[in-house]
Protein backbone atom coordinates (compact mmCIF):
# COMPACT_ATOMS: atom_id res chain seq x y z
CA UNK A 1 0.00 0.00 0.00
CA UNK A 2 1.44 3.33 -1.10
CA UNK A 3 0.16 6.44 0.66
CA UNK A 4 1.08 10.08 0.09
CA UNK A 5 1.32 11.97 3.38
CA UNK A 6 1.92 15.70 3.56
CA UNK A 7 0.95 18.98 5.20
CA UNK A 8 0.26 22.14 3.27
CA UNK A 9 -1.06 25.60 3.84
CA UNK A 10 -4.25 26.74 2.13
CA UNK A 11 -2.24 27.76 -0.96
CA UNK A 12 -0.34 24.47 -1.30
CA UNK A 13 2.92 25.56 0.36
CA UNK A 14 4.79 22.56 1.80
CA UNK A 15 8.22 24.05 2.50
CA UNK A 16 10.51 27.04 2.73
CA UNK A 17 14.29 26.97 2.70
CA UNK A 18 14.35 23.21 3.28
CA UNK A 19 12.07 23.35 6.31
CA UNK A 20 8.41 23.41 7.23
CA UNK A 21 7.30 27.05 7.43
CA UNK A 22 5.12 26.35 10.50
CA UNK A 23 5.20 24.56 13.81
CA UNK A 24 2.21 22.31 14.33
CA UNK A 25 2.79 19.55 16.92
CA UNK A 26 -0.59 17.93 16.11
CA UNK A 27 0.61 17.29 12.57
CA UNK A 28 3.94 15.89 13.78
CA UNK A 29 1.99 13.55 16.09
CA UNK A 30 -0.25 12.44 13.20
CA UNK A 31 2.82 11.87 11.01
CA UNK A 32 4.50 9.78 13.71
CA UNK A 33 1.34 7.74 14.40
CA UNK A 34 0.94 6.91 10.72
CA UNK A 35 4.54 6.17 9.82
CA UNK A 36 5.98 4.43 12.89
CA UNK A 37 6.44 0.75 12.13
CA UNK A 38 6.07 1.37 8.41
CA UNK A 39 8.24 2.69 5.58
CA UNK A 40 8.77 6.27 4.43
CA UNK A 41 9.91 7.26 0.95
CA UNK A 42 11.52 10.61 0.33
CA UNK A 43 13.82 12.44 -2.00
CA UNK A 44 17.40 13.27 -1.11
CA UNK A 45 16.65 16.93 -0.35
CA UNK A 46 13.87 15.98 2.06
CA UNK A 47 16.18 13.50 3.78
CA UNK A 48 18.93 16.08 4.08
CA UNK A 49 16.46 18.66 5.43
CA UNK A 50 15.78 16.25 8.31
CA UNK A 51 19.43 16.38 9.33
CA UNK A 52 20.46 13.38 7.21
CA UNK A 53 19.34 11.01 9.96
CA UNK A 54 16.99 8.11 9.47
CA UNK A 55 13.74 8.45 11.39
CA UNK A 56 13.58 5.73 14.04
CA UNK A 57 11.27 2.73 13.91
CA UNK A 58 10.66 3.08 10.19
CA UNK A 59 12.23 1.77 7.01
CA UNK A 60 13.74 4.92 5.47
CA UNK A 61 13.94 4.97 1.68
CA UNK A 62 15.64 7.73 -0.29
CA UNK A 63 15.29 8.22 -4.03
CA UNK A 64 18.22 10.00 -5.63
CA UNK A 65 19.85 10.11 -9.04
CA UNK A 66 23.28 10.36 -7.35
CA UNK A 67 24.74 6.86 -7.80
CA UNK A 68 27.37 7.54 -5.12
CA UNK A 69 24.96 8.77 -2.45
CA UNK A 70 25.33 7.03 0.91
CA UNK A 71 23.46 7.40 4.20
CA UNK A 72 23.37 5.33 7.37
CA UNK A 73 20.31 3.19 8.07
CA UNK A 74 18.67 4.19 4.78
CA UNK A 75 17.79 2.21 1.67
CA UNK A 76 18.95 4.13 -1.39
CA UNK A 77 17.20 3.73 -4.74
CA UNK A 78 17.90 5.49 -8.02
CA UNK A 79 14.67 4.93 -9.94
CA UNK A 80 10.96 4.80 -9.21
CA UNK A 81 10.90 1.35 -10.79
CA UNK A 82 13.42 0.06 -8.23
CA UNK A 83 11.24 1.34 -5.39
CA UNK A 84 8.08 -0.16 -6.89
CA UNK A 85 9.85 -3.51 -7.28
CA UNK A 86 10.98 -3.34 -3.64
CA UNK A 87 7.39 -2.58 -2.52
CA UNK A 88 6.09 -5.55 -4.52
CA UNK A 89 8.56 -7.82 -2.70
CA UNK A 90 7.94 -6.43 0.81
CA UNK A 91 4.40 -6.13 2.17
CA UNK A 92 3.41 -3.20 4.31
CA UNK A 93 2.53 0.45 4.25
CA UNK A 94 4.77 2.88 2.39
CA UNK A 95 4.36 6.61 2.89
CA UNK A 96 5.55 9.18 0.35
CA UNK A 97 6.63 12.14 2.47
CA UNK A 98 8.17 14.51 -0.08
CA UNK A 99 9.39 16.53 -1.64
CA UNK A 100 7.67 17.75 -4.72
CA UNK A 101 9.78 15.56 -7.05
CA UNK A 102 8.79 12.39 -5.18
CA UNK A 103 5.14 13.38 -5.31
CA UNK A 104 5.43 14.09 -9.03
CA UNK A 105 7.17 10.76 -9.69
CA UNK A 106 5.08 8.46 -7.53
CA UNK A 107 1.66 9.96 -6.74
CA UNK A 108 0.05 8.00 -9.58
CA UNK A 109 0.91 4.75 -7.75
CA UNK A 110 -0.76 5.77 -4.48
CA UNK A 111 -3.93 4.14 -3.18
CA UNK A 112 -4.49 6.72 -0.43
CA UNK A 113 -3.72 10.36 0.32
CA UNK A 114 -3.35 11.78 3.84
CA UNK A 115 -3.32 15.56 3.72
CA UNK A 116 -3.08 18.01 6.58
CA UNK A 117 -4.40 21.39 5.49
CA UNK A 118 -3.34 24.32 7.63
CA UNK A 119 -5.95 27.01 7.18
CA UNK A 120 -3.42 29.84 7.09
CA UNK A 121 -0.99 31.33 4.57
CA UNK A 122 2.77 30.98 4.82
CA UNK A 123 5.68 32.11 2.71
CA UNK A 124 7.20 29.20 0.89
CA UNK A 125 9.32 28.06 -2.01
CA UNK A 126 8.04 24.49 -2.37
CA UNK A 127 4.46 23.59 -3.30
CA UNK A 128 2.48 20.38 -3.44
CA UNK A 129 1.71 19.56 -7.11
CA UNK A 130 -2.09 19.77 -6.79
CA UNK A 131 -2.50 19.44 -10.55
CA UNK A 132 -1.59 15.75 -10.20
CA UNK A 133 -4.71 15.00 -8.17
CA UNK A 134 -7.72 14.36 -10.36
CA UNK A 135 -10.68 14.93 -8.04
CA UNK A 136 -12.71 12.42 -10.08
CA UNK A 137 -10.28 9.66 -9.07
CA UNK A 138 -10.36 10.23 -5.31
CA UNK A 139 -13.01 9.98 -2.60
CA UNK A 140 -12.71 11.93 0.63
CA UNK A 141 -13.26 9.16 3.19
CA UNK A 142 -12.51 10.92 6.46
CA UNK A 143 -12.04 14.42 7.82
CA UNK A 144 -10.62 14.97 11.29
CA UNK A 145 -10.66 18.50 12.66
CA UNK A 146 -7.37 19.53 14.24
CA UNK A 147 -7.46 20.88 17.76
CA UNK A 148 -6.02 24.30 18.42
CA UNK A 149 -4.38 24.91 21.78
CA UNK A 150 -1.39 26.70 23.31
CA UNK A 151 1.01 24.64 21.15
CA UNK A 152 -1.07 24.37 17.98
CA UNK A 153 -1.78 27.92 16.89
CA UNK A 154 -3.20 27.31 13.42
CA UNK A 155 -6.59 25.92 12.42
CA UNK A 156 -6.06 22.66 10.55
CA UNK A 157 -7.81 19.53 9.31
CA UNK A 158 -6.63 16.03 8.48
CA UNK A 159 -8.17 14.65 5.28
CA UNK A 160 -7.96 11.05 4.12
CA UNK A 161 -8.70 10.20 0.48
CA UNK A 162 -8.99 6.80 -1.18
CA UNK A 163 -8.55 6.11 -4.87
CA UNK A 164 -11.83 5.12 -6.56
TL;DR of this structure?
With 164 residues, the chain is an alpha/beta fold. The chain has helices spanning 25-35, 44-49, 80-89, 100-106; strands at 2-9, 13-15, 39-43, 59-63, 75-77, 94-98, 112-118, 126-127, 138-145, 156-163.
Distinct helical segment count:
4
- What is the CATH architecture assignment? 3-Layer(aba) Sandwich
Strand order of the largest sheet: 5-4-3-6-1-7-10-9
Question: What is the strand tally?
Answer: 10
What does this structure look like?
GO terms for molecular function: dihydrofolate reductase activity; NADP binding. InterPro entries: DHFR, DHFR-like_dom_sf, DHFR_CS, DHFR_dom. With 164 residues, the protein is α/β, with parallel strands linked by helices. The chain contains four helices and ten strands, in the order ββαβαββαβαββββ. The protein has one domain (2-163): 3-Layer(aba) Sandwich (Dihydrofolate Reductase, subunit A), CATH 3.40.430.10. The protein has an eight-stranded mixed β-sheet, sandwiched between helices. The model has no long low-confidence stretch (mean pLDDT 97).
Amino acid sequence: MLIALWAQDQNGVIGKDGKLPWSLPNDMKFFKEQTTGNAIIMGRKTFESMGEKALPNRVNIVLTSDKDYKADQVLIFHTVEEILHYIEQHEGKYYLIGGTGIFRSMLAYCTDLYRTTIESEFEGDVYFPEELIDRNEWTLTKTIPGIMDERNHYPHIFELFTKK
